[in-house]
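User: Last request for today: this protein with dicarbonimidic diamide, please.
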Amino acid sequence: MDTSSVTAISAEPYPFEFFPAKCALLIIDMQRDFLEPGGFGEMLGNDVSQLRRTIGPNQALLAAWRAAGLQVIHTREGHRPDLADLPPEKKVRGKSEKSIGDPGPMGRILIRGEAGHDIIPELYPEPGEPVIDKPGKGAFFATDLHAILQNRGITQLVVTGVTTEVCVNTTVREANDRGYNCLVPSDCVGSYFPDFQEWGLKMIKAQGGIFGWVTDSAAILPALA
Ligand code: C5J
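Assistant: Here's the final one, the structure of the complex with dicarbonimidic diamide:
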């Protein structure tokens, strides 16, 4: 495709001006522990099917994005094996029987290098695609994401992944404050809670797009052809 072209993608609250050469696909935390049956998310009583419905749309978008030669960045939420970057309050909040760093169904929970912390095979990063290991909810906090985007001339992000109201929303807000325009395809983001899925997206596009734009993958795919 001609990456210098500009396309208007149908979105809410109004069409998104897509500059392919300046736009990265940022896939948030599509990790085994959040999405796979038997993982940490399900162990906490969550319905992982609410997240798994995003896998197919993400696969289609990622394939088209790669075929167009555009930039892809992945993130993973997790901590150092020695837990030195884990705020003590994050460890104990929720009062669940098992928490970050404890042995879980797929290794130590949300610890870098453990099986559950890794990205699901369906969306596994290819060589050359940066993977941002983030200790917080937002992908900009305590990471080199902003530097990578600036060095690569990126001014726009298509943000996908999980969960809509937590790490996706936090990242979109952080990106907005740093001057990036964000487009969020609703079928490529997921929440364990249907209400939060709905309201998480409404919050992004409210008030004339206070944090960004919302669309679906069907509206983006033709712009990648
Ligand atoms: C993410 C979480 N990725 N819900 N984490 O949203 O704790």
